Amino acid sequence: PCVAFLKKQAAALDMPVRLFYPVNEDNPIVVMTLTGTDPSLPCILLNSHMDVVPVFAENWKHKPFGAEMDEEGKIYARGAQDMKCVGMQYLGALRALKKKGVQFRRTIHVTFVADEEMGGGRGMRPFVETADFKELKIGFSLVEGLASPTEEFPVFYAERSVW
């Protein structure tokens, strides 16, 4: 269902979407691409992930996958903070900029990967070793992040220094 949802988002943004399976069919990599005016330049990667840490429903006041909003507007859903909100922010920002007619010199790739929460061994880790990844020509990447209830957008450096 997540891949179908992302394909729908890509279509609404008029962004071609490709699926890669570096390990198996259960762990896809979704790549949406907004081609820049100068495709020869190194590209920008906005990376997100589709998986969540294991769920223990008995510890929740709301259904983990219910996506419930309370009277204050707070959303309770597994993965809403890590990482669905940031992935949707990427797409929302691109949607708003495209609506304003902004054109980018660099190509922008938005990726949604599997298996990030368990170390990436069935997701980004094997994908970066493939010719498909190398063909993306990544020059700069934003990965992870947190939602912010204010205008402040915190940036973390080397939180996961493994990569």
Task: Point out poorly predicted stretches.
Answer: none
What is the CATH top level name?
A: Alpha Beta
Q: What is the average per-residue confidence, as pLDDT, rounded to a whole number?
A: 84
Q: Could you give the order of the helices and strands?
A: HEEEEEHEHHE
**Strand line-up of the largest beta sheet:** 1-2-6-3-7
Largest sheet: number of strands, sense, barrel closure: 5 strands, mixed
Query: Strand portion, in percent?
Result: 15-25%
> What structural category do the secondary elements indicate?
alpha/beta
Shape field: globular
Please indicate the count of domains. 1
Helix content: 10-25%
DSSP helix count?
A: 4
Compute the gyration radius: what is it?
A: 16 Å
| Overall number of strands | 7
Description:
Helices cover 24% and strands 20% of the residues. A five-stranded mixed sheet has the order 1-2-6-3-7. It has a two-stranded antiparallel ribbon with strand order 4-5. The longest helix is centred in the middle third of the chain and has 20 residues, at 80-99. It has a single domain, classed as Aminopeptidase (3-Layer(aba) Sandwich), CATH 3.40.630. The model has no long low-confidence stretch (mean pLDDT 84). It has helices spanning 2-12, 80-99, 124-127, 131-134, and strands spanning 17-20, 29-34, 43-49, 68-69, 75-76, 108-113, 138-143. With 163 residues, it is of the alpha/beta class. GO terms for molecular function: aminoacylase activity. This is Aminoacylase-1. It comes from Stomoxys calcitrans (Stable fly).
